[in-house]
Amino acid sequence: MYVLLTLLVFALMEGVTWLTHKYVMHGFLWFLHEDHHQPRGYVFEKNDAFFLIFAIPSWLCIMLGLMHQVYWVVSIGAGIALYGLAYFIVHEVIIHQRFKWFSRWNNTYVRAIRWAHKMHHRHIGKEDGESFGMLIVAKRYWEKVRKEKQLNPNIR
């Protein structure tokens, strides 16, 4: 049961991320997110503060759930933490390549998420935007990558 709850929370975090990205990061906390759309060449961005914004509730759920032996709360924290790990790998490593661990990955899914994120970043203002999610890619980006592969069969 706890594993299923962890996986459910992981899945729900995509919606939480979408809503947070669209209405908080591109809303009243734009001042933290702006340097992600308009990089200034620093290793760290103010946008990295969102790591803490999501990590703190995860840590609190895990810690307090363990302290009080309320394991369904631990599962919630674990689901948030797992999504955070997935977000880090997809966003920081695969898309922006802040770490060069998987720089040669070029399959259809990776190409689709990179394209969706590129379309998100073409908007440098807070009001405009598209593709606010992270792991789920809209159909139009999959189709673009498939058409690209049809035109160039050498693409994996």
List the helices and strands and how they pair.
Blueprint lengths: L1 H27 L1 H8 L11 H19 L3 H25 L12 H14 L17 H13 L5
Question: How would you describe this protein?
Answer:
The chain starts with a helix and ends in a 5-residue tail after the last helix. The longest helix is centred in the N-terminal third of the chain and has 27 residues, at 2-28. The protein has one domain (2-151). Helix 1 (2-28) packs across helix 2 (30-37), helix 1 (2-28) crosses helix 4 (71-95) and helix 5 packs across helix 6. It is globular. It has six helices and no strands. It is mainly alpha-helical and 156 residues long.
Largest sheet: none
Assembly level: single chain
User: What is the mean pLDDT?
Assistant: 87
What is the terminal-to-terminal distance?
38 Å
The geometry reads as: globular
- Low-confidence region ranges: none
How many separate domains? 1
- Number of continuous helical runs: 6
The secondary-structure element order is HHHHHH
Question: Which structural category fits the helices and strands?
Answer: mainly alpha
Please outline what is shown here.
68% of the residues lie in helices and 0% in strands. It has 156 residues and is mainly α.
List keywords for this structure.
156 residues; mainly alpha; 68% helix; globular; 6 helices
